[in-house]
Specification:
single chain; alpha/beta; FAD/NAD(P)-binding domain; 3 domains; 13 helices; 27 strands
């Protein structure tokens, strides 16, 4: 008689795509909820092996914080979650699988799932404006902040030895497009940084500097209301920032930024914060979308795909309190969405009822430089030093990891005592080629399948750039 060996039942696999606020917090809560469930495994797919705390990104660009102090290793945050570092190439909903590529060789890997959480976030939208994709600096990633800091310092170095007034003017003119939170905080930090760096450059003076904020609306920071927006405009103008309202960027060249009102600004630095668009992988998915984002129900489930969920910037989450409206794509909403989607996936696996997502914005805060801020908390407006103190206190409390909190607090203390560093620790030609690669990857191909010829050309350019770097580093 032949004995039969019973097969072990296959574990249920939950796959999370994206290492931003929505995806990471979904993984954190799933890890807690399903810690005792040995028949369930959780997998997080992320392009980077760290979680970036984006509200403090502008402080990296302004040399207020050390580069690694606002990032947390995913493997440290998620001890029981399988972390896969790679790019998502295709989401195959009918066959319940995801195709990713890993490593320098772009090795392909297929990841099957029982439940899928799409939290791919958004990318910078350049609106096909001539010159922006190649020349402008976005503010979405850690690489962008490092690039901006290095570019500012390099232009200060060049301007210090430049004899041609026109070239020096274009080097010392810094333009930020977009009057939302990212644009205002970036222009305020950039303005403080360049003005505090001037004492290190004996041939430069403040009269040579020009820092400009371009916004298409009639008031900046429209999310905070007109009164705080106008207060911010006055503060920035008093500190030397030129605010241009009701206008937009039309194009950019190596030496100039052109506005739609036929104004040409001699500048070699444009920081673009004026638009985002959901990840290109979203567009070709066979599911209902609204305003380019995946439409989910009140339980954060994707329509017609009960085992697929979506959170964060790439999801259109209906506000059950306001019919027809959606929850804004902010970090505080993504964190709560991640928690609710984790609870609902656990409930679905355990046969329990699902929980509706409902959250009202607690408050909005912005740092506008020199220990000044603006905030709207529970409908009340705050400005000045107290608002800035609230900004730092609240975001420091939200920063994951006790060690990171201590490091950031220590950096802030040192910033009160010592001048900012003016070290450009980045290679700009390499960064520009890398950005071309990122833009190509995000715009070419069908459902994430990229055109090999275009990528090969950019990779070749990057390889040449690396060769130049290695030669410069030899003695």
């Amino acid at each position: 008689m032949i004995a039969r060996v019973a097969r072990r039942p296959r574990k249920k696999r939950i796959v999370i795509l994206g290492g931003g606020f929505g995806g990471v917090y979904a993984a954190i809560h799933l890890e807690k909820l399903l810690a005792r469930e040995s028949a369930v495994e959780i997998c997080l797919v992320s392009r980077d092996n760290f979680f970036l705390f984006t509200p403090m990104l502008h402080e990296i660009a302004a040399s207020d914080l050390e580069i690694t102090n606002i990032v947390n290793p995913l493997r440290k945050l998620l001890r029981k979650v399988e972390v896969v570092v790679g790019d998502v190439n295709e989401i195959d909903l009918p066959n319940k699988r995801v195709l990713i590529s890993r490593g320098y060789r772009n090795d392909s890997q297929q990841v099957d799932y029982d439940h899928l959480v799409i939290a791919l976030g958004s990318i910078t939208n350049f609106y096909d404006i001539p010159g922006l994709a190649d020349l402008a600096v976005p503010m979405k990633s850690l690489r962008d902040a490092i690039q901006l800091r290095a570019q500012i310092i390099q232009h200060l170095e060049e301007a210090n030895s430049e004899c041609n007034p026109a070239d020096r003017q274009s080097l010392l003119t810094f333009v930020v497009a977009g009057g939302g939170f990212a644009g205002v905080e970036t222009v305020a930090a950039l303005n403080d940084f360049v003005r505090e760096a001037l004492p290190f450059y004996p041939n430069l003076c403040e009269d040579m500097l020009r820092v400009m904020l371009v916004h298409s609306g009639s008031v900046i920071l429209p999310e905070l209301g007109e009164s705080l927006g106008r207060y911010t405009q006055k503060v920035l103008a008093r500190r030397g920032v030129e605010v241009r309202l009701s206008t937009r960027v039309k194009s950019m060249t190596e030496n100039s930024v052109f506005l739609v009102d036929s104004v040409a600004i001699p500048s070699r630095t444009l920081v673009w914060t004026a638009g985002t668009v959901p990840s290109p992988l979203i567009f070709s998915l066979p599911c209902t979308k609204e305003r380019g984002r995946i439409r989910v129900n009140q339980f954060l489930q994707v329509s017609d795909w009960p085992d697929v969920w979506a959170v964060g910037d790439c999801a259109f989450v209906p506000d059950i309190r306001n019919s027809g409206k959606s929850h804004p794509p902010t970090a505080q909403h993504a964190i709560r969405e991640g928690k609710v989607v984790a609870q609902n996936i656990a409930a679905a696996l355990l046969g329990r009822p699902l929980k509706s997502f409902s959250f009202r914005t607690i408050g909005l805060l912005a740092s506008i430089g020199r220990r000044t801020g603006v905030a709207r908390i529970f409908g009340f407006n705050f400005s000045g030093f107290f608002a800035w103190w609230m900004w730092r206190t609240i975001y420091l409390s939200k920063l994951p990891g006790l060690d990171k909190k201590v490091r950031v607090a220590f950096d802030w203390t040192l910033d009160l005592l010592f001048p900012k560093d003016v070290c450009a620790v980045h290679d700009l030609p390499y960064r520009r080629d890398f950005h071309r690669l990122e833009h190509t990857r995000n715009t070419l191909g069908n459902n994430g399948r990229y055109q090999a010829s275009a990528l090969q050309a950019v990779h070749s350019s990057i390889d040449n750039g690396l060769t130049r770097i290695e030669l410069r580093g030899t003695i």
